[in-house]
Design a protein that fits this description.
With 502 residues, the protein is mainly α. It contains 22 helices and 11 strands. It is globular, with a radius of gyration of 26 Å.
């Protein structure tokens, strides 16, 4: 143990020495390593000299990445469809070597509140979309317009959603034998809703931590660790690329596999992953995924894969027979014409990813009024809906007939109408309960009949719509589907009648 600690400390001192030598001769590169891999920057070599022992998992993961195997310039030389970077030109500090530890963790250091002196070099803890934008500007720009990028604010800045979160996570205490509601703890939010939506990462100062190399001074971060899609970062940017491309391999293969989406898109409220797994598409994928090429760019339908994953329909660059079927996008709602997950009804996709800015005719921050009127000025037009639906059908028709694709979307549209009608009935029952003072309505989420109403649209209607969209029949039937929609409505009706009778 003593020997190990001394060895690591020796490596840390060696790393510092290497770094000092390198900064005296900026731009110096070590000799070409064995094999075909390009050289590393001197600064990244210094990082690895220590971290290969201190955090070997991180280094090993990075060594599997394209970042470790290619220079940005070589990435720019690829044909347009094969290119994974969208920058027209790379800055000087990113030329001549691979993208390593230093290239990401020291980039734009002056913009990061979490930048600190680490063995003689200024690095920051949190790598953000604004950093990735240096090489991937188109991808970062697309993502910045998505609902995912603004997921934190869309939850926290929308008073309706925020109240739902607070009510769901509140702490209940017993006083004199009676349950008394308390306030939701920040930890409860961090561990639940904000784990996917993203926290606000704030630097509150510095702290000393003990490591195998001895004590070091690091930024003291609140809201960290977190990889939520709408995270508010210390440099002021929003989002987290690593929500889908996990560090430090940043694998496109991982991002394309359904399990990655399944980190957050789970039953009962957003059951996309569960529905997909029981669908025919999910069944084929599970059976054949070991034979598919998950990291090809472009992703060639019929050659690299033969059934869609989430990425196929939502964002990947797809070709078939040399023809582009769908362009790559990192705005995951930009291909979709209807939003299945709605509060309270399905509706056209929002124009902006900042859905907390929506205001409907009832002056509520919701895309549709309780009575079913859409906030049309905040939602895409019927013409745009038609264009997007046609684009989805193009993807479908590369495996299915025109009639199959057309009828699939006809079924989905009818399902949306029918589930919205079931939700409208539940909403009328709730409004009646408020009028009769069966519930007080001050907080629409804290009484029994109100919580049944929440289940109607948040769990059951969403499940039916997802089951229809992705052909997972049990999720449209007995698994949070029509059975629960009908049973829940009956429960609300009986509860309203019993309470009114009293």
């Amino acid at each position: 143990m003593i020997y190990s600690r001394c060895a690591i400390l020796h490596q840390a001192l060696l790393a510092t020495l290497v770094f000092c030598v390198c900064v005296l001769t900026p731009g110096t590169l070590r000799a070409q390593p064995p094999g075909d891999k390009p050289p590393l920057s001197a600064e990244t070599e210094a990082c690895i000299a220590c971290h290969e022992s201190a955090t070997p998992g991180i280094v090993a993961d990075w060594r599997t990445s394209r970042h470790s195997a290619h220079t940005p310039e070589s990435a720019l030389l690829l044909p347009a469809l094969e290119r994974r970077v969208s920058a027209a030109k790379m800055p000087g500090e990113l030329t001549g070597h691979t993208v390593g530890c230093y290239e990401c963790h020291a980039l734009r250091a002056d913009k990061h509140a979490d930048t600190f002196d680490h063995f003689g070099t200024m690095v920051h803890v949190v790598v953000t979309p604004a950093d990735c934008q240096t090489c991937h500007p188109a991808e970062a720009d697309q993502y910045s317009g998505s609902k995912k990028a603004h997921a934190h604010d869309n939850l926290v800045k929308n008073p309706v959603y925020s109240l739902l979160m607070e009510t769901t996570l509140r702490q209940m205490n017993i006083e004199k034998g009676v349950l008394v509601p308390g306030k939701a703890s920040e930890n409860a939010k961090h561990e639940t809703c904000l784990a996917c939506h993203g926290t606000t990462v704030v630097v509150t100062g510095t702290k000393t931590v003990e490591t195998d190399a001895g004590p070091i001074e690091i930024p003291d971060l609140v809201g960290w660790p977190n990889q939520g899609v709408g995270r508010i970062n210390p440099d002021g940017s929003v989002g987290s690329c690593t929500a889908c491309h996990p560090r430090h391999g940043f694998s496109i293969e991982v991002a394309r596999k359904p399990e990655t989406c399944g980190q957050c898109h789970l039953e009962p409220d957003v059951p996309g992953y569960n529905v997909y797994k029981e669908s025919k598409h999910g069944n084929i994928t599970d059976a054949k995924k070991e034979r598919w090429t998950w990291d090809a760019v472009p992703w060639k339908l019929g050659q690299d894969f033969t059934a869609p994953s989430c990425a196929t329909c939502h964002n990947a660059l797809i070709t078939a027979g040399g023809t582009v079927v769908a362009e790559r996008t990192h705005n995951f709602g930009s291909r979709l014409y209807v939003r299945l997950f709605g509060l309270i009804y399905s509706h056209p996709q929002p124009i902006s990813g900042k859905t907390h800015e929506i205001l409907n005719a009832d002056k509520m921050p919701l895309p549709v009024t309780f009575g079913g009127k859409p906030a049309a000025s905040f939602l895409i037009s019927p013409e745009e809906q038609a264009t997007r639906k046609a684009g989805l059908k193009v993807i479908c028709r590369n495996c299915h007939s025109t009639d199959w694709a057309d009828k699939h979307f006809e079924k989905l549209d009818r399902t949306n109408i029918e589930t919205d009608a079931m939700t409208a009935t539940a909403t009328k029952l709730l409004a009646g309960a408020w009028e009769k003072r069966i519930a007080d309505g001050k907080n629409p989420f804290d009484e029994e009949i109100e919580q049944l109403w929440i289940k109607q649209w948040l769990f059951y209607a969403n499940s039916v719509r997802s089951g229809s969209a992705m052909a997972g029949p049990d999720y449209a039937a007995f698994k949070h589907g029509w059975w629960d929609l009908t049973h829940n409505l009956q429960h609300m009706k009986e509860l309203t009648g019993k309470r009114a009778g009293k």
